């Protein structure tokens, strides 16, 4: 009888400890809030009838934005999106799951954003954006202009930079490197005055002198240039520096 009581007590402790462990794992997986400075970002995602925005203070997670953990314990911000979802911004027909940095800035002093990412798309011919320097539209500057200054995009098997020239309205596309689904890349974008530079895995890929009369802000996540397909982008070590 004593042995049975001891056995039942040990069994109860075992189950309680397992349950406690499950709760901790689920809690750790609910939000990636500890991976960024939440007050510096807000999330933009499909809202059904239009694009929705979510402040991140206090922790937030959804099917568009969550925490992912590798087998070795490495933690990532996980952006997930179906291109057929509903709820885009007024200036596009495509949906997005992106973090938007809250500070707007001019091309004056040094500004930079860096992060490591890996990405997957369900269709081989997909085209989607994984980072941007976006403008704050201002009709008093150039009426109707909404295009970003810089778009970091994956098109088929290439990682590319697309730069807007607001003086003549044209784009320049620069192939940064090849890209294979699921591979890791460390990317950094930097502006020093009107000089824009992009680095991949520590190597400077280009510097261009740019003209941008707008205020700008950084974005990172998924913004597909198509209305079909499933997308996953994983981001870690996200750092923004504004001097």
Report on the structure:
The chain has 243 residues and is mainly β. It has one helix and 15 strands, in the order H-E-E-E-E-E-E-E-E-E-E-E-E-E-E-E.
**Spatial strand arrangement across the major sheet:** 2-1-5-14-7-8-9-10
What level of helicity do the residues show?
10-25%
Strand composition percent: over 45%
The string of secondary-structure elements, in order, is HEEEEEEEEEEEEEEE
The total count of strands amounts to 15
In short:
The chain is mostly beta strands and 243 residues long. It has one helix spanning 2-28, and strands at residues 41-46, 51-55, 65-69, 75-82, 97-101, 110-121, 127-135, 150-155, 158-164, 171-178, 185-192, 195-200, 203-209, 216-224, 230-242.
Write the layout of secondary structure elements.
Blueprint: H1 2-28, E1 41-46, E2 51-55, E3 65-69, E4 75-82, E5 97-101, E6 110-121, E7 127-135, E8 150-155, E9 158-164, E10 171-178, E11 185-192, E12 195-200, E13 203-209, E14 216-224, E15 230-242
Antiparallel strand pairs: 1-2, 1-5, 3-4, 4-15, 5-14, 6-11, 6-15, 7-8, 7-14, 8-9, 9-10, 11-12, 12-13
Task: Note the main attributes of this structure.
1 helix; 243 residues; 8-stranded antiparallel sheet; globular; 7-stranded antiparallel sheet; mainly beta
């Amino acid at each position: 009888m004593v042995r049975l009581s001891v056995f039942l007590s040990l069994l109860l402790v075992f189950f309680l400890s397992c349950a406690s462990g499950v709760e901790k794992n689920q809690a750790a997986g609910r939000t990636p809030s500890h991976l960024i400075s939440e007050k510096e970002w807000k999330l933009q995602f499909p809202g059904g009838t239009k694009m929705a925005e979510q402040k991140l203070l206090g922790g937030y997670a959804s099917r568009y934005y969550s925490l992912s953990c590798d087998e070795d314990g490495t933690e990532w911000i996980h952006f997930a999106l179906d291109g057929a979802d509903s709820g885009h911004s007024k200036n596009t027909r495509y949906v997005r799951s992106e973090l938007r940095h809250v500070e707007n800035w001019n091309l004056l002093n040094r500004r930079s954003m860096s992060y490591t990412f890996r990405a997957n798309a369900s269709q081989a011919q997909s085209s989607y954006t994984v980072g941007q320097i976006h403008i704050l539209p201002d009709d008093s500057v150039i009426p109707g202009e909404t295009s970003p200054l810089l778009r970091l995009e994956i098109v088929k098997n290439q990682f590319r930079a697309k730069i807007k020239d607001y003086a003549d309205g044209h784009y320049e596309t620069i192939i940064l490197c090849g890209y294979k689904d699921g591979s890791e890349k460390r990317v950094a974008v930097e502006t020093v005055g009107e000089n824009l530079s992009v680095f991949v895995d520590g190597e400077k890929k280009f510097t261009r002198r740019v003209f941008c009369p707008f205020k700008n802000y950084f974005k990172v996540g998924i913004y597909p240039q198509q209305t079909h397909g499933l997308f996953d982008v994983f981001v870690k070590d996200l750092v923004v520096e504004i001097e």
